Amino acid sequence: MRRRAPALGAIGLAVAVLGLFPVVITDPTATSIAVFTVIFMVATTSWNIFSGYSGYLALGHAVFFGSGGYAVALAARDWHFKGGWDVFALLPFGGLIAALIAVPVGLVALRTRRHTFVVVTIAIFFIFQLAAFNLGFTGGTSGIFLPIASFSAATYNNPFYYVGAVILVLTVIMSWAVRRSRFGLQLLAIRDDEDRALGLGVRTRRVKLIAFVLSAFPVGMVGGLDFYFVGQVYPQFAYNPLFDVSLALMGFLGGIGTIAGPLLGALVLEALQQYFTQTFSGSGAYLIIYGALFLAVILLLPQGVIPGLAGLWRRWQTRDARAAPAPAPGALP
Amino acid sequence: MSATALLQAIVDGVLTGGVYALMAAGLTLIFGVMDIINIAQGAMVVLGAYLSYELSVHAGISLLPGLVITVPAMFVLGMAIEYCFMRRVRESDRTAMSVLVTFAVAIVIEGVLSAVYGVDYVQLHASYVDKSVYVLGFYLPWIYLIAFGLAVALLAGLYALLYRTRFGRAVRASLQNRTAADLIGVDVSRTRTIAVGIGVAVTAVGGFAFGATNAFNPNSGYDLISRLLAIVILGGMGSIGGAMGAAVLMLVVNDVVAVAWSPTWAPLVFFAALVVVLSVRPQGLFGRVGARAQ
Fold first, then answer.
1. Given this model, what pLDDT does residue A314 score?
2. Distance from first CA to last CA of chain B, Å, rounded?
3. Which of A112, A143, A223, A326 has the fewest CB atoms within 10 Å, counting from its CB?
4. Inter-chain contact B115–A291, Cβ cutoff 8 Å?
5. Which residue of B96, B107, B268 is in closest CB contact with A291?
6. What span, in angstroms and rounded, lies between the C-alpha atoms of B230 and B275?
7. Of A249, A247, A251, whose CA–CA distance to A262 is shortest?
8. What residues of chain B score a pLDDT lower than 50?
9. Residue A15 to residues A8, A10, A105, A155, B209: CA-CA distances in angstroms?
């Protein structure tokens, strides 16, 4: 029980920071960055439930992000939502649509493994993007506008932030529950050796599909949240290849397969990216800095920041033990 | 739809397929020798195109002679990227990590190109690029004929290099079993560095063909990489002949659908065909299970 105490303290501190952030920092630029950061923290955590635990690198989660966004936008328009807290009630609907889409996508994509799986997810992603451009009900290139939220201008960002924070807490709990369950162990077994897991009686196909669908749901919800915040959903933004890669980058940066890793990766990368975009917009400089930083992290901490720093910390802690000469075996005291 | 339009679409598809095969050759070679998915391939094609552009506009060196400079330059760049980044990736999860490392390389290349050239679209021009020849009722643009010829020659050259030379044997040995290759005296690290260099050098030619047939800007790499990956996976990753076959097949499908149905839906058919083929044959059309295809 004593070992748990620091972990509980850290969780309490994190939740307090999450809850109090917009109270302490009221600058709209900062809170708008915070909204996007929370959205990416949800999406990366949720991506990690599938890709991190199962080891299958999915590069098509923008399908769920965009589909959730379109579902919420279409529902808000056709059911005449006024624009306020009511639209937030549609977010689970967006998540549901994303999860429903994940079933056939998963059935097709999960027939393949390794590189082929990566490419199949990319190909399916492009099918959705092209469909969004060309189908009638998606509004084509200009997309669909969402109702404008009726919040007061000074604290306009806060409702979006808090709704995102609630989804974040729920998603982290889901990730934690999966990780601790028998189901989570089956996923980890698939990551380590799929054929052996199958031989030991894990129903690999079903386990993978369930994880894939589970990981689509929160992404669809924050997709709806993101486009409600932005006010519009259109194809190249809803189905954005950079979104696909960003989740993988954030996951790997923090350390995939862990619970805190994707949170930290998304927190650092999304905040940094938003900041760079606003500071150096229009020139290639921000891309160069971003790419170079990213390369440096991969090469210096190839396991991700959390496992990498944990390894360094352990080495630092055992440093004294190793430095001290071990007593000769068999020596008399 | 007339039979002539259909035939023209098939001819166009075959010729454009040559251009895509040139761009995909480096990707399949680097995968074949390193087990690395090079997401930076699209950015490298665009970089090759900008090198040709720089030479033709500012140094007055025409495109084809310019290849004598751009190919070695890209060869050196490829070796540098392998030496600095790719070889640092751990063996255990190399495929996943390689996606990230090469994506970061792509971001840096895109950033440098945007800083130097901005976002305006440019295209490569030369007398032999803009003319067409009229054969048996079809207009065949010279640039596509040149690109197709280059594609056939280069892919044949790569095939000969990999399967008919001592160096090629060393490359294949170091992929199959690194320890065993080390033991029989192959310098695995050096072999891989040179092989990646060759893959990137070939991409310089792909960049020339791309830049002469399309208007491009520093962001053009993103549209390319999905199609190139699709071609390489469809052909069977690491298979050099497969890349050519898949490129021609995909572009013919694309162009025929564009004529027969509608150009807006043509790319969708392209990706849908890919998904269908791969869910039936995960190793690709020309790939073999468990072994590297020739």
1. 80
2. 39
3. A326
4. no
5. B107
6. 9
7. A251
8. 289-294
9. 11, 9, 35, 21, 55
The amino acid present at A312, given as its one-letter code, is L
Instruction: Note whether B89 contacts A57, CB cutoff 8 Å.
Output: no
Q: Do the chains contact at B271 and A119, CB–CB below 8 Å?
A: no
CA B21/CA B23 separation, integer angstroms:
5
Taking every pair of Cα atoms in chain B, the longest distance, rounded to a whole number of angstroms, is: 62
Which pLDDT tens digit goes with each residue over A191-230?
A: 888 889 999 888 989 999 999 999 999 999 999 999 999 8
Contact A130 B268 (CB under 8 A): yes
Tens digits of residue pLDDT in A232-242: 888 878 888 77
Whether B143 and chain A come into contact, CB under 8 Å, resolves to: no
Q: pTM, whole model, 2 decimals? A: 0.79
Rounded CA separation B227/B248 (Å) = 12
Q: Which amino acid is at A301?
A: L
CATH architecture of the domain covering A15-317: Orthogonal Bundle (1.10)
The upper half-sphere exposure of residue B120, i.e. CA atoms within 13 Å in the direction of its Cβ, equals 4
User: Quick check: B145 contacting A, CB < 8 Å?
Assistant: no
Residues from A contacting B (CB-CB < 8 Å) are 55, 57, 59, 108-109, 111-116, 118-120, 122-124, 126-127, 130-131, 133-134, 241, 245, 248-249, 252, 283-292, 294-295, 298-299, 302
Mark out the alpha helices in A110-240 (DSSP H runs).
Answer: 114-134, 157-180, 182-192, 194-199, 204-230, 235-238
The pLDDT of residue B292 is 40
Q: Between A114, A252, A291, which is nearest B111 by CB?
A: A291
